[in-house]
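Allow me, if you will, to draw on your knowledge of protein folds for a short while. I have a record of one protein: its chain in single-letter code and its fold written as discrete structure tokens. Could you please explain, in whatever detail you think fit, how the structure tokens follow from the sequence? The record follows directly beneath this note:
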Amino acid sequence: ALDAHNILIVGSQTLDECKTLCLENVNCKSIDFQGTCFLNDADSEMVGLTEFPGDVFYDKICSEGMCIMFS
């Protein structure tokens, strides 16, 4: 989890829906997913990542106009 870096919190999303929300948001750099979708304005390299049981974390990685979500 990236404390104090949430830009959007959305409930009732699947992991794939959460990844898509991040890919579609230019300000999103990563997600935390715990049944609730947390879009973050930082990635794990910018800020120290704190791991919690059941938390799934993905960074958004972009190159040459293409972006993917990477855990």
